[in-house]
Each structure stands twice: as C-alpha cells, then as structure tokens.
Amino acid sequence: MKYIKPVGLAIFFAALVLFTALLFVGQYRLTDTVLQEAVSEAHYPILKEELAPMMNETYSSNFAFVQDFNRLFGAYNDELRLEGQYEKVIWDDYAFSVTKASSIGFVADNKLLLLLLTIVAGALGVLMYVLPTQTHKTGGLKHEGVYHSSLKSRGWVGIVLGTYLIVLYVLLYWFAEYITNWVLLADPVSMVLSSNPASKWFMYGLIYTLAILVMGVRMFRKHRGNKYQTLRTSSVMFFQLAFAFLIPEILVLFNKPWNDFKHIWPLDYTFFFEYRVENMVSSGAIGMFMLIWGILLIVVGVPVMSYFYGKRWYCSWVCGCGGLAETAGDPFRHLSNKSLKAWKIERWMVHSVLVIAVVMTVMTVANYFSGFGILGDATGVVHQWYGFLISAAFAGVIGVGFYPLMGNRVWCRYGCPLAAYIGIVQRFKSRFRITTNGGQCISCGNCSTYCEMGIDVRWYAQRGQNVVRASCVGCGICASVCPRGVLKLENGPEHDRITDIPILTGNDSTTILQ
Questions:
Q1: Exposed, middle or buried, 173 (CB in 10 Å: 0-12/13-18/19+)?
Q2: N or C, where is the chain less crowded by C-beta within 10 Å?
Q3: 506 band by pLDDT with thresholds 50, 70 and 90
Q4: What counts of helices (H) and strands (E) characterise the chain?
C-alpha cells in the first residue's frame, strides 16, 4: 500500500507532461474540403481567396499555422475596417474551427490512445494518490501541516499550479486555436454522446467533470463516516455528471438545445438572450419546458428552497462551481481571507455583480420586445463586456486559477450573482442557521481556519451565537472539524434565529456581521 501514492503521483505527472507537450506536436494542412467544413457557406468563397497562400501547405506546428491564418484573415478584416466597410467584415472567429479541422498526423490519428494516456491516466493517477488517504481525526485538521506545505500555503508548488491553471483558462477563453490538440482528444467521447466532434467547451466539461468525480473520492476518504459530507459530495458529483455533462449532450444528440437544467439565472446570464429564447421557443415542447423551468427556478425555486434550506441547497449540493470548489479546491479552503476588510470588499463586489446582471437582463428583455428600437446595439456591447470581465476573467481565470493563492471560493464569495441572490434570501428570510454551544467551545480555531467563505466562526461559537451570514454556503466543514461538537447545521423556526450581539471592529465602532 505504501507504494500506491508515489506511483499514482508519478502517473499523474507523466500524464500532465504528455498532455502539455501535445500543444507542441502535430501537423496541419488546410485544404479546400477542410475549409468548406470549418466555415459557413457564405464566408467560404471569401476565405478561400484570402487564405490561398496557406492552401495545401503542411505546417509542422500549431503556432506556425495559427500565425499565418491570423495574418491573412486579419489583413482582410483590417482593410475593410480602414475603408469603413464594416458590413463586410467577418466577425466570426474561425481560427479555432479551421485549425482543428486542419490537424493531421500523430495527434489526429491517435485521439483515443492519447486520451487514455493523458486525461484518463491522469485521473487514474490521482485516484491512486487519494485512495490511501487517511480519514481525519476530529479536531486534528488544524495540525495537518497545511501551513507548511508548498502546495497549500502559497508556496512555490502552489504558485506553479496557479500559474498553470491561469494560463490554461486564458488559452481556453481567448486563444483556443492553440489548444486544438487538447480538444481533439475529447472527440471520441463527444462522438459517443452527441455524434458531434468535440468543441473546446466539451473538452473543458470533460476535464471539469473528471476533476469533481476524482477529487470527490478524496472527500469520501477524508470524511469517511460523516454522513452529511458523504451525501453532499455525492450530490455535487451526480449533478455535475448527469445535469451538466451527460444530459446536455444527449439533448444535442436529439437536435435539441444544449441546456443545463440546474444552471439558474443570473449565474446563467445568457438565459434571456435573444438567441437562447428563440432556440427554446423553436424547439417544441422540450424547448418550452426549458424556458418555463428556468423561469420557475428563478421566481419560485430559489426563494422557496432557500427559505427552507438556506444557501446550501444550491451552493454546496447542486452548483458545478461549488462542486469543483468543494472537491478539487478543498485542499486550499483555509487560504480564504478572514479579515474584516475582505468581508467589506466581498459585500460590495458580489452585490455589484448582481446589480449589473439584473440591469443587463432588463436592458436585454426591453430591447428584445421593442424590436431593438430602444437601445439598438448597446445590449450587445454590454453582453460582450460582461462575458469578458465577469464570466471569463472573473469566474474562470481568477475563480479557479486563484485556488492555490486565495482559496477555493473566490468566485462564489466575491463575484457569483446567484450566490448574492440566494444569500439575500438566506440572510433575511430563511430557516437555516448554524447553531453553537458556547459552553463547549475550546477556542481551537479549527472552524474559522477551514471556513472557505472567510467567516470567523469561532467568534460566534465563543459567544454561543447562531451563525447567520449571507455568505455561508452550509458546507458543514466547520462542524466536521470541531473537536467538541459545538457547531450544528439546522433548519428551524425563524424566531430567535438572529441575535443582536455586535462584533467589535475598531475603536468606538461596531458592525453586525450576521
């Protein structure tokens, strides 16, 4: 047994090295047939002429191919912009689709083998590493050495990992043409599920889902015997695999709109966009069900479920972002900033994003029903900036890339508009609370140390005061690591839920943090 962990770690690193190296291998050749498949019928004649110097040329690297494509394609659009002929500019980003379709040689010919040697082998290596993990002893988590780990305490391993994740997300969102070899690996799985070649988002969803499943096993091992943690982890694994990965692809197989039935506005900020609504309306009964289901979740599902169960029903049991944070991000949960300053920034940021999402949606709906006569193309500009700054840069690059630097709930805590919406309900109209038994608290600080949302749980426990905070996601880890059983997650009557004991925050000033 003692050799399983090091062997698993070696397999994982070997798979990761091969996975990364794939970006620098392969050959590319653009032909007339490939171009016809990769671009729209309307743009094919234009691109065939503009990309003529590339036709039937064999490129030995992805970078050389993309460089030539961007040069020729960019020159065509730049000339039209200089002449003011914006109606003729090709706004579609064909770099990814053309590069992927032009791939030939080793990677394109060995997709399944390379998938097994990289993504599958990497997942197997992690499983071998986490399976022998010892379950924690109650009250012992604080002394697991996390503050002396170069991975878990912002050491050099954590910085390297964070940098790798940040680069991966930057490539995924804005330079996907450079990761076409990675996307090719997902083709065999995509063809089985939807009979379509993999997109960059399918490849990302595949890796994302595997990360939750594999690291979910780690949570089972770490909290073995804790029924709440076992059920909670099983829930996020199920919802990610079934609702976020398999069901949407099966819908595509039957020519229905891709839809994640657990994705709720305003987190699903595109739900009321014109193309989404028209796709649902034009897809018959299943499309209308998607539309009505989504609206019911917003106006009925969220407030009702949050009233009875608080924020935890979604953020810790259903949400894919929370699922990744609670599994793959669990080793970094103690890195969340517990300071009062961080809490103040959190309140302003997360509620500002919610306001922006609401205003954007109102603009979108008003413009749609007015035939775009009110705001014209203004909504499109807002959509682009929101997608770039919030959905991509914040939720993706910072939200996951900063796990080893700022903890696992950066996006949930500071940027998620749905978390803000549910948090408002939880704070003012909910039965959920974490009860405390102040007489039993020994002030060990385990609860505060491992609170991923930056809540000073010990302060409440010392005073026997219920923890009622808009940011609390009800993960229950604070109760799991308490050596005296001081903390308990409850759904009880609303009366006496909130007490008015202030938290001292400075000279002559007080702030209620509930």
A1: middle
A2: N
A3: very low
A4: 28, 7
